Amino acid sequence: MLDSFLPTGCRLRPARTTDKAALHHLLTQLERELTTPKRSWVLRGSVLTGVGLLLAWATIVPGGRTVLQSFLLPSMGIVIAVSMLLPLLLQREWAHYWVIEANGVLVACAKLQRHGSYSVLFDVYVLPEWRQQGVGSHLVRHLGQQATKPLYLACLPARLPFYTRLGFSPIASKTLSPVLQYDLGLLTRSGIIPLVLV
Q: According to a count of CB atoms within 10 Å of the terminal CB, is the N or C end of the chain lower?
């Protein structure tokens, strides 16, 4: 649907299966912005250290090479299988995404997951060159209207003013159910703030 509140040429619509690649690109960009460089290097360093220790162990310990081959090949198979299945698992999720496209190119996305008595907003992302133009605000407002209230989301402290301007309020993590805490990523990510729109 074309909307006068969006920049010229922009359109808000539900994601389609043909959007998979472009939506994946937006979500990859989002993850890059959420992952601090330090965290990324720590992860890479940990993986390289682990591989190095495993190879050293395999060459020093008698029979280590056999164990390594017995362990490494199945592990690689699991990684390959998961990487092949992940797109299929994500395929079921496309129906929950909304996108804003500008002249046929996706510039923003968000995922609205509706439950019986509440909703959760995930993966709100706008390409940097499209920020400060009302695109993100329009997307969040629209999904707020579609949502079963209350609507929950979690954000980084830097994004708190954006969401409070749209009517969201911080909420104490301990007041949320364990399932909702898990859904919002409060159990696995530090430094994020749970918010609610009633």
A: N
Q: Which residue has the higher pLDDT, 47 or 155?
A: 155
Kindly list the domain boundaries of the chain, sorted by start residue: 1-111, 112-197
Per DSSP, helices labelled H in 61-159 are 64-91, 135-146
Beta bridge partners of 113: 120
Helices 20-34 & 64-91 angle (0-180, nearest 10):
120
pLDDT digit string, tens, across residues 55-88: 676 677 777 677 667 776 677 677 776 665 555 5
pTM listed for this prediction: 0.73
Neighbouring C-alpha atoms within 13 Å toward the C-beta of 124: 24
